[in-house]
Structures are given as structure tokens and as C-alpha cells.
Amino acid sequence: MQNYPHHYAVLARGEAMGDISLEGYHLPNLQTAAPPEFDGPGDRWSPETLLVAAVADCFVLTFRGVARAMNVPWVSLECDVVGTLERLERVTQFTRFDLTARLRLPAGTDPERARQTLDKAERGCLIANSLKGVSHLEVRLEIDADVPAEIAMDPQLTTAGGS
Q1: 16 within a domain of the structure (yes/no)
Q2: Model-level pTM?
Q3: Helix or strand (DSSP H, E) at 140
Q4: Which domain holds residue 93?
Q5: 55: domain CATH number?
Q6: Count of domains in the chain?
Q7: pLDDT tens-digit map of 131-159
Q8: Which of 99, 83, 77, 61 shows the shortest CA–CA distance to 132?
Q9: Helix (H, G, I), strand (E, B), or coil: what is residue 98?
Q10: Cβ contacts of residue 48 below 8 Å, gap of 6+?
């Protein structure tokens, strides 16, 4: 990892009507629009869905790093996030992010240690930590008896190794 501070630059281009184009250095352009709740078409990413996606993405990436550091084997992780947007005291803001993490573990993995790893990932997610909204994690573990723990720990042996 590079020393802090890190800087992330994005250019947004738009006209009076139509999509907004997001551009980042060495990244594919992304077309966005307002969500249907704000009279948008509903078939493109919006700032709201991008923010909620950033919480989910950051959680999975943080879990990946924490699991690696704690030597916790895992097969796959799915994270659904629902962001709640409300108007409080005449200010529209996200007030809550409900995360549901579904973690598949190989046979022989300690479920309590896996839960601790998920909790640590939630506390360490820099995107969620940068937002005002409260974050709540619900955990669902599944043991995959077909995947031994030593295979899940070695990304060279499986494509679902979590690294």
C-alpha cells in the first residue's frame, strides 16, 4: 500500500439533458443518470446506487484483506446493501446502510472466527466509515463440505479462493 494521503480523481461531464459521463484515469467511462425516485430513467447507475455499491464493494475488499491477515479460509462472499435515503431537518441524506453478508466457508473452518472476521471488516470499511449513515451487518454463514480449508486458503488451487 502507498503512503497517505491518497487522491482519487473523477471527471463528470453532462449537458442540460441526458446522461452524465464519469471518467477516471485508466478506467472505462461510466454513464449515469438520476434514479427513478428523482424522475430518472431507472436503467443506469445513479449517484445513489454508486454510493451504496461502494459500501458493498469496500466491505468485500476489506473482508478479503482481513481474512488473509487472520488466515481465515473462505470460498465466496456476497454482500447485499440497502441504503436508506431520508430527509431530516430539511437535508436529504443516507441515514442507514443495511448489509447482509453471505459467507461460504470450507469444511473445518471455525464459524465464530469467520464471524469475527466479518465484524472486523465492517468496522474497517473505509467507505462506510466516511459516511454519516449508520451501518448494520447481518451475517449468514454456509459451510461448504466439498471444499477443504487448505484449498480455500491457496488462491493458486481454486478460482474462488477469495484473494
Answers
A1: no
A2: 0.86
A3: strand 134-148
A4: 46-153
A5: 3.30.300.20
A6: 1
A7: 998 899 999 999 988 877 766 666 554 44
A8: 83
A9: strand
A10: 35, 37, 83, 85
